[in-house]
Amino acid sequence: MIRWLGWVFAGIVLGGIVHLSTVLILPLTATRNGYSRLEPFAPVNTMTLLPQPTPASAVLPFLDPAFATAVCRYDLTVAPLKVVVTASQAYTSLSFYTPRGIAFYAINDRAAVRRTIELDLMTSEQRAQIQEDEEVTAADRLIVESPTPGGLLVVRGFAPEPGDMPVVRGVLSQAQCRPQPLQ
Amino acid sequence: MQLLGGLFITIVIAIFLGLGATWYTTVRGVSFGGVTSGAWTAWPKSGTQDIEPYARAAMARSGELPLGSGDGVAFRASGDDSGRPFDGRCVVTLAGTTPLARYWTLTLYDRDGNLVPNAVGRHGFTSLEIVRASDGTFAITVSPQARPGNWLPSGGIDRYQLVLRLYDTAVGVATRAGRETPMPSVRTEGCP
After folding, report:
1. Looking at chain B, which residue has its C-alpha nearest residue A1?
2. How far is A65 from chain B (nearest CA, A)?
3. B30/A contact by beta carbon, under 8 A
4. d(C-alpha B167, C-alpha A36), whole Å
5. Closest in A18, A24, A95 to B68, CB measured
6. How far apart, in whole angstroms, are the C-alpha atoms of residue A71 and residue A50?
7. By C-alpha distance, which of A33, A40, A71, A103 is closest to B63?
8. pTM for the complete prediction?
9. Which site in A75, A143, B97, B147 is 20 to 30 Å from B135, CA atoms measured?
10. Burial class (CB within 10 angstroms; exposed 0-12, middle 13-18, buried 19+) of A78
11. 3 state SS of B186
12. Predicted pLDDT at A139
């Protein structure tokens, strides 16, 4: 009897290890995370306006229907990315995710100068190159460092009432992300 | 023989317990480190690189992109203040106010995060659409049939969840539940 209890106890301990390791491994193997769901819709280094979510279809779950969403799947291996977004009337935000769907940075339109949010997205290595060349001008620029060479930029524009949505979508369709090599 | 039998029992228990617990925590959204206020819970850390492993696994599975902490914070409720799960056939009322934020939105989703079809095409409210009382508080009725005032159709589905998102708010990783987070009360008024 005691012997069997020992085996059961070992099973429980081993089960705990299986549980913890699968929770940690799951995000690394998930093929339907936010980033991979966008792959068929969003070409690399191009801003793509997503269709509004409806009950019948949504590119991602839990999208806020009061927001228009544009995404830019980026790849910084060749060059840093220049991002230019015009803020819509009410509220606009930019969120940055790693390919695993971790939000590493987000800003809103408080960072806008004359209703335009302009920033340079680059890796730490590219950032290091800049600081050697042009330390003075770098201070005036909004630079976002990406922890991974690839990732996802999500621009969200708020339509406080449904009637505002066409205008917000129009503003967001002008948003840009494009590679800009270091001088 | 006894060794084999023992090993077999150990491995069967380990697999069922381990994978079962993982399935349960990622599908049902068990997650630690949340800010709870009444029926509502937010995980501000999910919008940062410090996202904890359970929330990370749940989001990898659902495909959701969490709100970044510099953008806003999302409070979720899947039941009323007494813990009773939302039922789309019942009348549920939300009353009160929200923490300070530049804007907020309230959205009704099914369990998987899809919007719920309904005759009027309404899936939520924004802070500018809502009709308020003179003291700034508001009341929202979630029900299958139309109601006067702020009516949010439940579409009559079995289970749903409500997500209240605060945009450009001071509520974040450092927030503790309590006076900083006055969330609306959630009551089930009646079921057919």
Report:
1. B6
2. 7
3. no
4. 26
5. A95
6. 7
7. A33
8. 0.88
9. B147
10. exposed
11. strand
12. 54
Sheet holding B160-169, edge to edge: B35-37, B40-42, B72-77, B160-169, B101-110, B124-126
Contact B10 A7 (CB under 8 A): yes
Tens of pLDDT, residues A154-177:
999 999 999 999 999 999 999 999
d(CA B93, CA B138): 10
**Which two structure tokens, joined as six digits, stand for A88?**
């819509």
Helix (H, G, I), strand (E, B) or coil at A175: coil
Residues B104-149: tens digit of each pLDDT: 999 999 988 999 999 898 999 999 999 999 998 999 999 999 898 8
The span from the CA of B192 to the CA of B115, in Å, is 23
Does the distance separating the beta carbons of A55 and B21 come in below 8 Å?
A: no
B85 shares contact with chain A (CB less than 8 Å): no
> In the predicted model, what is the mean pLDDT of residues B163-178?
83
Residue ranges in chain A modelled with pLDDT below 70: 131-140, 183
Cβ of A8 within 8 Å of Cβ of B13? The answer is yes
Dihedral over Cα of B142, B140, B183, B127: its sign: positive
Looking at this protein, which amino acid is placed at residue B188? T
The model's pLDDT over A106-115, given as tens digits with 9 standing for 90+, comes to 998 888 888 8
